[in-house]
Amino acid sequence: MECREMAGRIHEFLDGDLDEYNNQLLQQHLRTCDRCYRHMRELQRAIAFVQSASHIHVPADFTDRVLAKLPAPTKSFRFANWLRKHPMIAAAAVFLLLMTGSISASWFERNPVIQVASANLDKLKIDHSRNVVIVPAGTKIDGDIVVRNGSVEVQGEVTGNVVAIEGKVFLASTAQVAGNTEEIEAIFEWIWYELKNIGNDLLPATP
Amino acid sequence: MFAGEDSMEFVEKRLIERAKRGDREAFAELIEIYKDKIFQLAYRMVGNRQEAEDIAQETFLRVFANLHTYDDQYKFSTWIYRIATNLCIDRGRKKKPDFSLDEEIEQGEGLDWYSRLSSKEQTPEEKVVTQELQETVQDALSQLAPKYRSIMILRYIEDLSLQEISDILKLPITTIKTRIHRGREALRGRLRFM
After folding, report:
1. What sections of the protein cross the membrane (chain A) (predicted)?
2. Are B184 and A77 within 8 A, CB to CB?
């Protein structure tokens, strides 16, 4: 075998590409040819030297310095990222957003006409001249009474709460109110009231 | 080992997805995985510590800026090595005209610096031998033309397969082999008398 041909086989051998047959030919040749044997050894040594080159490391603050050079994140991204890192706050924020949305909508949409919400509307008397809803003496109202843009005068009995929004709650001496009476005048109180209701709705254990 | 590589790739994929959405923590983890590999490649290509650091930094900045163009059909390592190799070769092209003696001195300092780090438990004689060897290897590499140098570094220092080098450089594997053969012969000529 010619040495010239063997040089190609030596490189194939070093790349792990040599098949068994050609490997046999090469090994036989290397046993008899000093020149090719030396050539092979020198190539292997050169590879080993390169592989032995020390592995160097970047300075400890490398990553921080790269991060500092990144373009500033957009505000919307920063907010989104912050939310991603604080899922509970994110949930609370969404909740609050939706709630204030619907609450303020219900606040701003109100009209100046007196509005009453009760399960026993038929038993209530409405005095339009004074803008007062009256629970007549001797009547019993089941559940809450909520009056908007007006006052409530309770002479009879209410098993729930009595709430007057932008109005007053008057209790006669004969009045019996099982729940609370509330007068709500400012939007914040209104929101607070709605939130409290949500809380009450969410908490099942109300006696 | 293969299972390890697979899970590594899985972790990497997750990090890339997060980084694509602009998550800096995920990007920082990607830097941690690749910083030394890229720095090593750059250092062996340019032979200068400061410049290698600049190239490594630039590599990661480009990776970040172009993450949206990364196609995850290919290995991430292939992509990042390609960016780094191209930066090294571009840098070499720009630098050639004003190559100065100062840089050669810096080169020596760099070698001195890392051999000091890497040879904590060696006797003084061994230290000298190691340092000489390191300098000789770096010298032999720097005398290769960049198209050979990059391949020899990717093959024998970064320990990549011929297939991956072919993917990185977008050259047929036969071309890579030819260059490796020539690169080996050139290194043999320079390191023969060690």
Report:
1. 88-108
2. no
